[in-house]
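Minutes, project check-in
Item: structure for the 189-residue chain
Input as provided by the requester:
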Amino acid sequence: MENFKAFTSQFATLTDKEMTDLKDLFEPVRVKKMDHVLVSGTYVKDLFFFNKGTFRVYHLKDGEEFTSKFLYAPCIYAELFSIRKVTPTFLNIQALNDCDCYKANFVKIEQLLETSPNIRRLFLKLYEHIYMKSSKRQVSFILDSQSKRYTDLIAEFPNILNEIPLQYIASFIGVKPETLSRIRKKNNQ
């Protein structure tokens, strides 16, 4: 978890004891390329810290995959809907390369939040960050063209074309692969 301290410091400053207490809740999860750390239909109880690697979040509808998010390590992810509603998740999280991943029981994380204002601040700021990114994506689907969603994605993640298969990128921006080919061709001129 070498990136954990650097990642969390973006959101809050923790004492050494708080950092140790938080890190101690996480256990490693073995994740190879194309493995899933979360599968639709399962009940989620854990929060994940992705130390290294790239993941995609997707759901299935009528046998078709719809990519809703890419997760670049280091990052923390929790499927709060499933955790809070105690209902099976409809999401899948798949590793796009060999990854370094950890998980912690969400209830134990919440118990730690009760004892540490700094850790509570960390998660408040983290959830705020996640909410803003999600809202930005929703607004983009309402206001932006498919081409603009593509160019914005490339601007935000310049190496994405080297790291993520085109069919996942197409799904993420809400187009079919053939439409993405036309957008790419037009943007390369």
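Outcome recorded: The chain has nine helices and eight strands.
No further action items on this chain.
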